[in-house]
Amino acid sequence: MYVYNIVDQSLVDQRVHQFRDQVGRRLSGELSEDEFKPLRLMNGLYLQLHAYMLRVAIPYGTLSSQQMRTLAQIAVRYDKGYGHFTTRQNLQFNWPKLEETPDILAELAKVQMHAFQTSGNCIRNVTADQYAGAAADEIDDPRITAEVVRQWSTLHPEFSYLPRKFKIAVTGSTRDRAAVRVHDIGLIIKLNEAGDTGYEVIVGGGLGRTPMIGVTVRDFLPKRHLLSYLEAILRIYNQIGRRDNIYKARIKIVIHELGADELTSRVEAEWRKIRDTAIDLPIGEYERIEAFFAPPSFENLLVEDAGFSQFEHESSDFSYWARGNVLPHKQPGYSIANISLKPTGGIPGDATAKQMEVVAALAEQFSFGEIRVTHEQNLVLPHLQAADLQVVWEILKEHDLATPNLGLISDIIACPGMDYCSLATARSIPLAQDISMRFADLQRQNEIGKLSMNISGCINACGHHHVGHIGLLGVDRKGEEYYQITLGGSADENTSIGEIVGPALPYDEVVNAIQTVVNTYVGLRADKIWRTGCHQDRQTNLADHGIYPASGAVQNRHLTRRRSTASL
Question: pTM of this prediction?
């Protein structure tokens, strides 16, 4: 992973000193809350429903063991003993005291971390495929690109006061594990016919009040022109993006109003002015950054480990975890292990300080000191030897980190909702807990197969409900919590926006309705298999069978289907 040089370190150290002065002036009354707000937002500090919240940047979701330990120590010393991993691969502390936030930033700076650009109208934390550097289907490591973009965008003087926040994601595979099509800019690493590496550039994706799937503005952008092309896009957006309406200030609205062709034309015209200039990264600097992401010192191992295979056969619990949470690695004899932060009845994305310490120790001993955060609010040990999987699983199990539900219905994405957020109109966490309890039976979850469940506590869609196979959006109706159900969303390479089915339901009726939806889907799927002679395994999801909401009626008086053409 990338290591700071003296310039990087000086920058974060100076920002800590600056923010300490700003907090002091706020506490003394020299600064009002309105005056302090833009200053704290520049440092990732929000004022939430009950307390301040500090959002720590985890660039492209990559952490070292030392950094994870520091997060655990901060959770104990300055918070309530836990942290919350987010859909932008960041971590939030929900209970810091204002007067102690400079001390937290100082602790972060010691391990090359900060809270820059985790809030405010700027380029936010760049996200990437959580299996970068480990996935067998990878064309190139997207962390290299993400780090280049991070350095270019950090405190960029031209883009620090954009019309609205701006999100960039990168994937290095044809399999999209970074949800690039629902970002302001999505980058897919590709090879052209000559074998050169470049990018498909996608612009205008986003969720929230107006969910949209991004459009491709360049099929292939040579790698050497990445920064100048991004700069051209941001300049056009900064010039013409709306500032009169916060809900229409995103680049997706610019595309909607101008059309993709007109936006592309303007971007290309701007790019012609600045390409082949100092904006683009010199090859020597790119190679310097690339060197930090060289593969670790893998051992030459057998593809299969006899001890692992025997234990998998003997232990059904381990077998469930190994088959569901462990994925193939590009290096023979190694595996990618996913750590679920979604135990039955737990809070999605939360990890205690002790759990963070455990993960840090496991990464240090077994995974070259490296940890990944996923946009699904889980963790990853990216480089495990197959021979170590059993002992790693046993330790994870001891600390409630071995739930074998990756991609299953209880692997729920959820925002903090009304328990913490001042913008929320409904609770997300209790609903996620109730749903996971209803579907606690692991055998049943596997019979259902891959099925994503996403929950947002308000229209801002921090829980990405639009792109869940099943999505729930909390809404306020005369002071009562109601939930809209959407079906058919997807965040992968076949991105789709879910469609609303039926009227919104009160809180007490949602879990039963979800069970009805799932039972109906499984019944329709089974009927299709019976009629077609297809065979289904536990990895199959709704889209694989072409099941559409219009295929049948949900037998629930509260849930009336309307015609839809989007697959679940």
Answer: 0.92
